């Protein structure tokens, strides 16, 4: 019989969905000086005993990360309470929020690959003989 997903993995996926909805519904009030442009929940990992959850997030502008982290730290209690109202769990996990820089790293890797490709000679130049060499041999 196929095992499928274990309970802590299913709970992690549900927490990820619920946290995204909570943030969408309540909004991120980071103050008038530094409004967050786009905050995304990228992943969630839950311990096997469901006591702890690590929630990974990203922001559109990486410079907004400290503001987002501060907001999460201040709102963690409210978010956990709201999560408890939405999910039927005996114990709501303790939440910790971690910035996920994988999108930024992916963009950097893409830029590096593009730079290498732009500096490489074309395949056609390598395969076809040069016309300058042919004219020198005929003299």
Brief write-up:
This protein is of the alpha+beta class and 139 residues long. It has five helices and three strands.
Mean residue pLDDT: 82
Q: Identify the CATH architecture.
A: 2-Layer Sandwich
Task: Return the string of H and E elements.
Answer: HEEHEHHH
Characterize the biggest β-sheet.
3 strands, mixed
CATH topology: GMP Synthetase, Chain A, domain 3
Number of helices: 5
The N- and C-terminal alpha carbons lie at a distance of 78 Å
User: Radius of gyration in whole Å, from Cα?
Assistant: 25 Å
User: What is the helical fraction, as a range of percent?
Assistant: 40-55%
Indicate the CATH class. Alpha Beta
Strand content: 15-25%
Uncertain regions: pLDDT < 50 for 5+ in a row? none
Number of domains: 1
Strand order of the largest sheet: 1-2-3
Shape: globular
**Structural class of the helix and strand makeup?**
alpha+beta
Count all strands and give the number: 3
CATH homologous superfamily descriptor: K homology (KH) domain
């Amino acid at each position: 019989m196929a095992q499928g997903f274990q309970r802590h993995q299913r709970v992690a996926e549900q927490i990820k969905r619920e946290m995204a909805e909570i943030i969408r519904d309540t909004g991120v009030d980071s103050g008038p000086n530094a409004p967050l442009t786009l905050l995304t929940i990228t992943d969630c990992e839950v311990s096997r005993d469901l006591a702890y959850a690590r929630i990974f997030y990203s922001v559109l502008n990486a410079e907004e990360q400290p503001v987002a982290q501060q907001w999460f730290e201040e709102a963690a209690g409210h978010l956990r309470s709201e999560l408890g109202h939405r999910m039927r769990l005996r114990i709501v996990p303790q939440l910790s929020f971690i910035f996920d820089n994988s999108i930024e790293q992916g963009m950097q890797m893409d830029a590096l690959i593009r730079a290498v490709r732009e500096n490489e000679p074309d395949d056609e130049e390598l395969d076809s003989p040069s016309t300058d060499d042919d004219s020198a041999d005929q003299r």
